[in-house]
Structures are given as structure tokens and as C-alpha cells.
Write a structure and sequence with these properties.
249 residues, 3-stranded antiparallel beta sheet
């Protein structure tokens, strides 16, 4: 199929409109994240108060002066974990509400008169460099396709994987599955013989340390899958994709 200059420019205009829609979506996501506020929860007996900061980190943990009588030392880890889960649910609800509002606003305030895209120089898909570019893209796609099942399995396995993080004295163990803290376990002897401020500080530090570990894993989500990583990068740049196909210069 041959492509003339009008086809190439029309395709670029469509790609630009798609990019504008994506930009509005990203703006709504960004605005929702910026609108996040801290979330504080308490357990039923008001023995533990936990605060998540606007960025999702554990900002503070406060133990009531009578917490040992109210819930018992052996239950502290469970109560902290339950408070964290409750705060996380509130935070997700807050984000979804904000996102819905921002998404509607982004559509309402969008500039529908998208600027004309810069004209492109038509390439020659039948030229040697055009054929070679498409062949390299095909090879890249085949390589990414071969990695796909392993990548999906790896991502699913990582999401289910149970990881433990401990503080330096191994008195606080925080368990997470994927990006979510599922348990906080404490050395009971340490809890009995340690003052509240140290307990609070060590638990907060251990929880945030485990979440920082999860964030580092997300940054390396394509590690070990180079073809997929390369294809994703090209897919985010429509002009580069068309250039490699020989459609434009």
C-alpha cells in the first residue's frame, strides 16, 4: 500500500490527537495525585493511631499511653497492620474520587482545537532503508513476543511474592505482597522491654523501608526483558515509529 503526503500528514494529525487525549488523562492522574492529603486512622480501642502521608509513606505511628492494657503487647503488630490496611483503603478511595473529578474537568476544559501538526517529509517505504527499518522492527517485535509470556508470568509472580523486611536489630518484621504491607510482626520480648517512642520509630522505619524496596522493584519492571523495554520506548514515540517504518523521513 502506498502512502502519499496527505496520508502521512493525516496519520500524524490522528497520532497528535491521540497524544492530546493521553495528555489529558495523564493530567487528570497527576492532579489526583497532587490533591492527595494525609490519612489518619485509629483502631476501635483507640490504642494505635497511624498516619499515611500524602505520598503514601507512613508519616507517624502513635501509641496510646494505655495501649498495653487495651490490646496487649502480643497483638500490637496485628493492630498496626490492620490500621495500615484501613488507611490504605481510605487513601485509594480519596484518590479515585479526586481522579473522577479531575478527569471530568480535564475533558470540560480541554482545548478541542488541536494545533496542526508540523508537516512531515514523506519517506519511501519501498526504499532499502525503509524495508530494512521495518525488518528490524519485525525482529524486535518477534523478540518481544517471545519474552511476553515469561514477562507476564514474572510480573504475576512478583505481585504474589511474599517479601519480608526487617529492621537492623531484627525486632520488627514487615511482610508485603507486591506493593501492599500485609503483616507486621514484632519480637515480644523487645516490645515488653522497650519504651513506646522507640517502638513507634522502629515500626515506622521498617514499614517505609519495605515500601521503598517495592518502589525500587517497580522502577526495574522490564529488567531482564530488553526487547519489551525497547519496544515500549519506541511505542511511546509515534514519529520515531513511523520513521523506522519508512513512512516519513
Amino acid at each position: 500500500m502506498s502512502m502519499d503526503m496527505a496520508d502521512a500528514n493525516r496519520l500524524m494529525a490522528e497520532l497528535q490527537e491521540t497524544a492530546a487525549e493521553l495528555q489529558r488523562e495523564l493530567q487528570a492522574l497527576s492532579s489526583a495525585s497532587e490533591a492527595m492529603t494525609s490519612v489518619t486512622v485509629e483502631d476501635e480501642k483507640k490504642s494505635v493511631k497511624l498516619t499515611l502521608a500524602s505520598n503514601g509513606a507512613v508519616e507517624a505511628l502513635t501509641l496510646d499511653e494505655d495501649w498495653r492494657d487495651k490490646i496487649g503487647e502480643e497483638t500490637l503488630g496485628l493492630v498496626v497492620s490492620t490500621c495500615y490496611q484501613s488507611a490504605l483503603e481510605q487513601r485509594i478511595g480519596q484518590w479515585m474520587k479526586s481522579y473522577a473529578e479531575n478527569a471530568d474537568e480535564a475533558v470540560e476544559t480541554a482545548d478541542v482545537s488541536a494545533p496542526r501538526p508540523a508537516p512531515v517529509r514523506l519517506g519511501d517505504p519501498s526504499s532499502e532503508w525503509g524495508v530494512e527499518g521495518r525488518e528490524k522492527l519485525r525482529e524486535m517485535y518477534d523478540a518481544a513476543d517471545a519474552e511476553q509470556q515469561d514477562f507476564l508470568a514474572h510480573r504475576a509472580q512478583r505481585a504474589r511474592q511474599v517479601r519480608d523486611g526487617v529492621n537492623s536489630s531484627k525486632t520488627v518484621t514487615v511482610t508485603r505482597e507486591g506493593d501492599t504491607i500485609t503483616a507486621v510482626n514484632l519480637d515480644e520480648r523487645w516490645v515488653r522491654n522497650t519504651n513506646d517512642s522507640v517502638i513507634e520509630r522502629e515500626i515506622v522505619s521498617a514499614m517505609n523501608g519495605v515500601m521503598a524496596m517495592a518502589a525500587r522493584e517497580r522502577e526495574n519492571k522490564y529488567e531482564g526483558f530488553p526487547a519489551i523495554e525497547q519496544l515500549v520506548k519506541i511505542g511511546h514515540n509515534p514519529s520515531e515509529l513511523m520513521r523506522r517504518m519508512g513512512a516519513i523521513r
